[in-house]
Amino acid sequence: QVQLVESGGGLVQAGGSLRLSCAASGRSVSYYHMAWFRQAPGKGREFVASISWSGDRTYYADSVKGRFTISRDNAKNTVYLQMNSLKPLDTAVYYCAADSLGDDYEYSSVVGYDYWGQGTQVTVPS
Question: How do strand 120-123 and strand 10-11 relate by DSSP bridges?
């Protein structure tokens, strides 16, 4: 079993930055495809970004491309999401997800991941 714990969320003014972390425990996720999703109030969970096990391939939602950067440190069993130029529309609970198959076949779909964290709140007031 893999446990994922997100941290780094908070309240930030528009235009500001936050760095989210996702620490994995229970098993190494070095060969897992990892992702960040988010869910705003009253909306479904949407894909934000994902990264291949080796870190050489990254994928982003159009809404965050150029502002967010996903990265990983396999030695620390941790994945990061650097968020810059934050907007009120970025307000959501952010979830870390892991795909134990390690492929990126369904990287943008919730069904492509079998482990999830409990989420961290990011609030950008308008």
Answer: parallel
C-alpha distances in angstroms, 7 versus 34, 42, 98, 115? 16, 23, 16, 16
* Residues with Cβ within 8 Å of residue 94, at least 6 apart in sequence: 6, 9, 20, 36, 37, 38, 48, 81, 119, 120, 121, 122
H-helix or E-strand containing 3? strand 3-7
pLDDT tens sequence across 2-42: 999 999 999 999 999 999 999 999 999 999 999 999 999 99
Which residues, 6+ apart, have CB-to-CB distance to 115 below 8 Å?
Answer: 2, 3, 4, 97, 98, 100
What tokens does 79 get? 């994945």
Cβ atoms 83, 122 nearer than 8 A: yes
Strand partners, 71: 80
Q: Which two tokens stand for residue 15?
A: 């235009």
Residues 44, 95 contacting (CB under 8 angstroms): no
Give the separation between CA 72 and CA 78, rounded to whole angstroms: 6
